[in-house]
Write a structure and sequence with these properties.
Carbamate kinase; 2 domains; single chain; about 425 residues; alpha/beta; about 35% helix; 7-stranded antiparallel sheet; VC0802-like
């Protein structure tokens, strides 16, 4: 069997869903189809959440807009009526009741209860359209089978508990094709959880691992894995195949074509990953596998925007290594802050992180008794795999380099985005 994953861009409208059905209909093997929320639905639900958490009644208008969007897609796909519209109506009614009657809890918990609906709605419509198209497809609510801990917005999979439930839910003796959700799961108590932003790729890899799939295919709006984001560098080139290790290095540095957690479940069972274009589905795309080699080594450029470069210094000028370093990183973990780059000296440590300002401010408050901190905002981290002098010049020319870190095959720079950057103190 195989796993296909379709992201929001591929199912943003009725035409995209028809294209999905066309791609799926060509597959002769048993198939699990993992689908993200339609278009920008996740962003729209985040607006609903924000307004609701603030007690702003405009959340109702935001939700009505989301409903109209989904209803219009359903009506275009099923002009003579279908059960999909009734299922959507019932699901929206359930969310409206939750928002009307529930007491607000922590932001992360409420995020998962509300934002997780996007994938439920999209898969209801996709599954019904596949059935309407003559494909024997079943819809699975992944929350009934994929159990996680209660780390909301970044939940960890409970592998042992989930595996048997997943295998029972996706029984190919009953159906040759299943449609399910990416990005979401649930706790043992039944509360919805999410696996981290853009986590549908990870879901596909999890299911492939648990079901012993022959391959995973992620359908994107690009021809495969490119050596740069084409929105940044317009001469980006496709790589025919890359290794698991190369993919991990790229995703860790910020490459967005694959979710960072995707590779490990596939590597553990040597399952190849195909990255292909839903725009040109007959093209082979890129394959990620254990024994891949770059037929022609080329620089790979990765840009991670909206970064903060934080310098942390012990107030007593003690060495920052040893126990100090352990305490600092424990505090980062405590606040759920992922570190993208670390550079240590005798009495300071420089850390590059995503600019999640509320988390950063809480972190600095926790550290302020023993440490002082300075940070540069409006920065970005630039990474080059297989770098050359020409490649370095190309992306750093005209920028102020705040930090440079070189390894055997990788170089990283933290640079200013522009003159609006500033150096600030946490004090």
């Amino acid at each position: 069997m195989k796993v296909y994953k379709f992201g929001g861009a591929s199912v943003k409208d009725a035409a995209g869903i028809r294209n999905l059905a066309k791609i799926v209909s060509k597959e002769k093997e048993n198939l699990v189809v993992v689908v993200s929320a339609f278009g920008k639905t996740t962003n729209a639900l985040e607006k609903v959440l924000k307004a609701w958490m603030e007690g702003d009644k405009s959340y109702k208008d935001h939700l009505d807009n989301i409903y109209s969007y989904h209803a219009s897609i359903a009506d275009e796909l099923f002009p003579s009526g279908n059960s999909a519209r009734g299922n959507i109506d019932n699901s929206f009614a359930k969310l409206r009741e939750y928002l009307r009657s529930s007491k607000r809890s922590s932001f992360d918990f409420e995020y998962d209860q509300i934002v997780s609906y996007g994938e439920i709605w999209s898969t209801m419509i996709v599954a019904e359209y596949l059935r309407k198209s003559g494909i024997n497809a079943a819809w699975v609510d992944i929350r009934k089978a994929l159990l996680t801990d209660d780390r909301y917005r970044d939940a960890n999979i409970l592998w042992n508990e989930s595996t048997s439930m997943i295998r029972a839910a996706f029984d190919f003796r009953k159906f040759p094709l299943y449609v399910t959700q990416g990005f979401i799961g649930s706790t043992a108590a039944g509360w919805s959880t999410t696996l981290g932003r853009e986590g549908s790729d990870y879901t596909a890899a999890i299911l492939a691992n648990m079901l012993d799939a022959g391959s995973v295919t992620v359908w994107k709006d690009v021809p495969g894995v490119l050596n740069a984001d084409p929105k940044w560098l317009n001469d980006a080139r496709k790589m025919e195949e890359i290794s698991y290790k190369e993919a991990v290095e790229m995703t860790f540095s910020g490459a967005k074509v694959i979710h960072p957690k995707t590779i490990k479940p596939l590597h553990n069972k040597n399952i190849p990953l195909h990255v292909r274009s839903f725009i040109d589905p007959d093209e082979p795309g890129t394959i990620v596998k254990a024994d891949a080699t770059l037929k022609k080594t080329m620089p790979v450029f990765i840009r991670k925007e909206n970064q903060l470069l934080i310098s942390i210094l012990p107030r007593d000028f003690s060495f920052v290594m040893g126990d100090n370093l352990s305490r600092i990183f424990h505090t980062f973990i405590k606040h759920g802050i992922k570190v993208n780059l670390v550079e240590a000296s005798a009495v300071a440590i420089d850390v590059c992180v995503d600019d999640e300002r509320p988390k950063i401010e809480s972190l600095l408050v926790d550290l302020e008794t023993e440490y002082s901190a300075l940070y540069n905002e409006n920065t970005e981290m630039l990474t080059i795999r297989h770098y050359t002098p020409e490649a370095i010049t190309r992306i750093t020319s005209g920028r102020e380099i705040l930090l440079e870190q070189r390894m055997r095959s990788t170089v990283r720079f933290v640079v200013r985005e522009g003159i609006a950057s500033s150096l600030r103190s946490s004090q």
